[in-house]
Amino acid sequence: MAFADEFPVQSLMYITNRPELVFTEGKGSWLTDQHGKRYLDFVQGWAVNCLGHSNPGMIEALTKQAHKIINPSPAFYNEPMIALAKLLTDHSGFDKVFFANSGAEANEGAIKLARKWGRKHKDGAYEIITMDHSFHGRTLATMSASGKAGWDTIFAPQVPGFPKAELNDLASVEALINDKTVGIMLEPVQGEGGVIPATREFMQGLRALADKHKLLFIVDEVQTGCGRCGTLFAHELSGVQPDIMTLGKGIGGGVPLSALMCTAAVASFEAGDQGGTYNGNPLMTAVGCSVIEQLTAPGFLQSVQDKGAYLREQLLALSGEFGLGGERGEGLLRALVLNRDIGPQLVEEARELQPQGLLLNAPRPNLLRFMPALNVEREEIDLMIGMLRGLLKKLA
Ligand SMILES: *Cc1c(COP(=O)(O)O)cnc(C)c1O
Q1: Which atom of ligand 1 is nearest the CA belonging to 107?
Q2: Does residue 146's CB lie within 6 angstroms of at least one atom of ligand 1?
């Protein structure tokens, strides 16, 4: 039967090209499609499923909570919302949490919070310096904050107030600071931009600049947070304490959950400034509690660091073997630099491998990005490397 006859996908609004696959089951690092073919998943919903597919702890939290209460209304407290906020503040240098549903929404909240703080404490300053090639989401304000090529015109006019600096170039940031500047916002590792880490010195330099000019230091940890980089939050790698942090992706382990966090000094929303129908939804925050408890269990983050180091070694070996451009990243957010623009072709051929496929991602034509589950097995890393080696040989 033709794919479109079996699955009437034409009713879905077109937004991107998708292969004719319908995934029906997932377990750990493996997905199964409509034909029963299995795929080793090194994308995990774009670094979302930090505990792999169908994690037992998450399933238990979700089903237990579903039987208790799904939605009392965001106008009231609920137990999982309180518990997750406490977990997050206990395990970070932040004091306050607002929950939302997506990374973009958390970043919108961060932008609003910074503008509110600027109104109250900095003479109406509102500009937030962001980085070229950054990615902060797909709402109008977060697209304007992003430094993605073409995004300044695609849905023009932009939301004003986001001058762009160069990542890892402190002077380029300092040159943009003026009376209207309220903050600096960046990803500790640019994910969509091609897995480009901010250096430790740059992060520390930004903290110092923010202190000197009374600016808010905002980190978008939607992709880098929640254990992805081997520490619970990636800014810990530089030993800096930001004023505002956003979380998404991994915090829900696959369910729609995100968070905006800040220090007590910055929490300046007044009644009615911020909200949202599903904020603090108990079904999602219950899952978030399970995720954070598993990530902070003794030894877990160390195992992410160990597996990250192992993946790095294996990627470097591949790079040496095929004369590629090396690898980069932090923890289990890594990229292999190819020597030609064969990323998209590799992604497709990896998916079509038989009898088992491999899911990879190419954020740039000459780059492969690896975002496995944080509990991926070493044998699964070996298997992925073996499959990739075969493909690189074939294309060499
Ligand atoms: C994915 C991502 C976002 C957007 O998150 P959504 O949940 O898709 O809105 C924002 N910032 C970064 C760094 C991301 O990786």
Answers
A1: 10
A2: no
Quote the domain boundaries for residue 376: 21-54+300-395
Q: Are residues 266 and 382 in the same domain?
A: no
Residue 301: pLDDT above 90?
yes
Full-model pTM = 0.98
Give the other-Cβ count within 10 Å of 86's Cβ. 12
Q: Is the CB of 191 under 6 A from ligand 1?
A: yes
pLDDT band at residue 140 under the 50/70/90 scheme: very high
Q: Is the CB of 281 under 6 A from ligand 1?
A: no
Residue 373 contacts residue 44 (beta carbons within 8 Å): yes
CA distance 172 to 175: 5
**Domain end marker among 263, 295, 327:** 295
What CATH number should be reported for the domain holding residue 247? 3.40.640.10
- Residue 9 within any structural domain of the chain: no
Is 2 a domain residue? Answer: no
377 assigned to a ligand binding site: no
